[in-house]
Amino acid sequence: NERIPHDKSLDNSLALIQEGYLFISNRVERYHSDIFEARLMGQNVICMSGAEAAKIFYDDEKFQRKGAAPKRVQKTLFGQNAIQSMDGEEHIHRKLLFMSLMTPPKQDRLAKLVLEQWMACIPEWEQAEQIVLLEEAKDILCRVACQWAGVPIEETEVKERADDFISMIYAFGAVGPQHWKGRRARTRTENWIREIIENVRNESIKAEHGSALHEMAFHKKLDGNQLDAQMAAIELINVLRPIVAIATFITYAALALQEHPEYQSILEVEDENNYERFAQEVRRYYPFGPFVGARVRKGFIWKDCKFKEGMLVLLDLYGTNHDVRLWDNPNQFRPERFKEWKGSLFDFIPQGGGDPAKGHRCPGEGITVEVMKVSLNFLVNKIEFEVPNQDMNYSLDEMPTLPKSGFIMSDIKRK
Ligand code: HEM
Question: What does CATH list as the number for 1-414?
């Protein structure tokens, strides 16, 4: 590839760890090119950013997911050979199963359960000196995710299970102890959920029709066979774990309210649109998913760049959400920008791009936004609290990243 910039370093794996969310956009800026080649993890990788790049990336004639996610990610975050690594008709068939679990009525039910759980926390919080929002959010979301999905969970288990989900999530990009913690968490969780699936199948646990537990346990593949119990467990975990992950965006939402107190009064008026815009801007502005990867399915040329069969290609999610060609003052937090936003499938991609029913875009965006909206409503209209001195910084050059303190709140009172 002579026509596109090449990063000169022998291997950029260390730079990727050091520059984190800005690794791709730093080079896009340096080379004045939204596509460049770099050496990462011992292979030549094409990195790209922006809406045009996203459109190509989500063309499934050009790209496949088989072989894209490293084993270390499959053994922590995704689960081995699950939906994230599937292609073609089999992927679409599996995807429709996920989509059927996340229809608007099901999103509403989940959001209602979340609000109930927030409200139920108030008496305990009023007695506590302080609470850490991130910690509370992950426990609540774990309890609610299980209840919503039909997965039985004892109250005494909630905290440990929630911590395991979090360990799987934050193992992405991690090496050393954090990676191994994620692997142990996954093994424990898969054993737990696989046993439940087996018990549903032998009828010692009842699962309600339409619940995620029931649908995963009895889903039939295109060949007419059920998923093996291990795979059904992995896919059910692919529903539970990301619900717990919304704790991250809830923490960023609280941080955004703290950094931009002028939105407090706007959100006191209980207008759906204002909540929606604020939640969208949190998803655009704050770092969570850094990039997604796929392999070239059949060689092609785009923008003078040779995409050779089998090559790994990374699409910059964080950078695209901060692309100056797509967003005015992208580094400013401004929910009103979503008033004019036209809603393309390729420019606002915190959870991937394209059509979720046809490609790999996250099927959980509706759930994420609804849960964020009720949580914002709770923080603004249902309680009053103080925010003591603490280190709320998050670093863009750590992947993953979070406000250090997890957002501490004190003197909490019901409004
Ligand atoms: C896929 C982000 C919440 C379920 C993805 C992808 C991203 C993402 C970046 C990959 C897109 C791609 O490969 O092109 C997020 C973020 C969330 C979130 C930042 C906020 C917490 C959820 C929720 C659910 C969910 C709430 C379900 C309840 C999934 C599934 C996939 C996926 C099943 C795989 C889809 C496929 O491969 O076809 N998500 N997600 N996610 N997400 Fe989410």
Answer: 1.10.630.10
